Amino acid sequence: MFVTNLKLAFRNLLRNKVYSSLIIGGFAIGFVACILIALFYRKETTVNNGFTDHNRIYRIYDVKMKRFNLNWDLYPVITSDYAAVENACPLDYFQNTEKMAVSDERTGKSVFLKHLAASTNDFFSVFSVDLIETISGKPFNDRESIAISRELAFSLFGNNNPLGEKINVGNYFKGTVSSVFNDFPANSSFMADVIINSENENFRLSNTTVNGKRYNPTNHFVKLKDATSPADFVNELNRSTAFEALDVDSLALQKLDDIYLSDLKLKSSHSKGNPTLLKILMAVAALILFLSSINYLNYWISMQYTKLRVVGIKKSFGANRKNLIIYTLIEVALGMSISLVIAAVLTDMALSYSGVIFGKQLIITWQDFLAVLPIFSIVLVILIFINSITPVILLSKFKISEFLSGIKEKSRGRQLWKKALLTFQLTVSTALIAIVTIIFRQMNYVNHSDPGFTKEQLLKIDIPYMFQNTKLLQQEIQKLSFVENTAVSAGSPGMINHKYGMGSEENSIDMNCIYVGDNYLKTMEIELLEGQDFLPGDLNRSCLVNQQALKDLGWNSYQGKELDIVQPGGYNVIGVIKDFKFESFHETIEPLALILTGADDGNVLSVRLMAGNKIQQIEQIEKTWKKFSPNEPLSFVFYDDFFQAMYVKEKRLTSTITFFSLIAIVLTCMGLLGQVFMICMTRMKEIGIRRINGASISGMLIMLNKDLLIMALISFSVSLPASWFIMQKWLQGFAYRTSLSWWVFAMAGMISFLIALITVSWQSWRAATTNPVEAIRYE
Q: In whole angstroms, what is the distance from residue 718 CA to residue 109 CA?
């Protein structure tokens, strides 16, 4: 019986090639989208799972003070006083520096450093990072020890033994290579090319002063023993009196597994995922499968009168509901199996473009396959069941005598359901077009809005720490024929290094500060609204403030005012500059002061270039750089690229939503195409008779497409409030945002309607222009 039903199902697919292609193609496209989303979801939700015993590793944070960076001196207390702790380590790190160089002091060879960390020997026990070779059997054998990655060891020393070699990390830390460690798990929220020994106070990456007391803030990780309750350990921590002098308050634990997708709004150097995007993608995956199922059900309802005779004959020969269910299950399973095979091939091709779609390159490993397989199998079984049982339930309502006699029941209810399903598809497509359009508008607004300074043709060169020739370098670059202006600063738009609290208790503000050299306003092309630009006599005495600072300080005028920060007596305010964006559009403009210090210890050289060949200009600047720093690579970025990098998540969201929106629109078009095929088929004789009686081709097209217009109007009225609400919520994440203009939604509705109209019109036109004699010749 099974073989017979399989043959019948296969024969039925071949008999209806157009419908079979649409059904199988629709599910194949849907499966590709869902497989890609499932792989991305697994990659995002398994970050840090590559560390051994990752489920027992926690990060400590201060709930009341809202921070992860706690006093380094917490570390020896935790490791010695608590039996529940198997091991613990402090961990501070700079992620994605890409401007700090590591150099071999013997040869002078340098390479860029991306990830720098500071910890202790216990780090390698907590995080199970393997050591390849060491001097003493430990990662750090003394306070000046430095551990480097295998990749960095090869880049610096080639095949030579790096152990015992002296290296210089960004002119900040000088030490001896005491060990080489293996690569971190690829899917980790933090990495390290270099790990320095933070037992050495000079090797700690951060320091701060609170109430006159100086300490080193850092992350703290604990690895709890098996069967230890995290809640009990936290309670024990908070009952302890050992932390009273360590500037901590109410401590809590965060799972290592939760760091990447955490909802905690605390500053952290860990790379962060986008849990909202994951929720959106899971909803999109369900929606795509639903659209594929709608297409199948619409095709089946359209073909019901063809199937009724087959079912009637089966029932007249004794087939019961069970037999019908089995046959339908086999038919649907066969179609979906073919779809799945096609989807597997298409997914393999699509993986090479996953970096563009998701912002991350996806691969299928055996572990990923085994993890996704059970969930995908359950979804597949549910889809087969739903798409099998629904037709059988509908079929069971018909009488055998009507199956065989050809009498057609009134089908208004079924027509309404069919139209409702197609209207839903159009609604989804219209909403997605509106959403994608608004996302693109916001990104265009971000990229092209005036930031308050001219970022085009403006180069940002990073100056290494303790660089001795900043002034000479600036002078030599200024001499280049294509350079308009240059300025040195400590900090820059997009990179504020200094912030100071000031004002009274009733009106206290945080003042952002950029220490600048001469010519800064001219180089950055920042508008001076009041007062005067810096003069040579203003060095270390004067500053300029922005409009927001004037407002937040409650000043009516800058004249006679001082900023009482940093040095005794503060700085005289000599003018007001126009507000400019020095952070992303997610943040409002904050108070800012430009302080003239000459910036001899500046870390940024801004260079205003003339229009020309940028590649050749950079080559000339690089030659000048090598005169002063032959062993250290030039680190630079254009300010417009620098600011665009702040919107990586938004760009990822744009590309991802656009891709899957196109898939949803394609599925909608396939549904409409299948529908118009059946309409033209069932009304062919009506069309022939109307044509013989003088109906025009345009009249036939209007008759065949009028339902589409009605469905488009309904879908627009439903999609408009839904898409408006969704995008209103999304735009709230930006302090400066585009408007939700009415024409965006009107355009989305029009585009959706035109796509649908083009999809169905060509088939309608074929039906309307068919020779009417062919349609009624056998009547």
A: 64
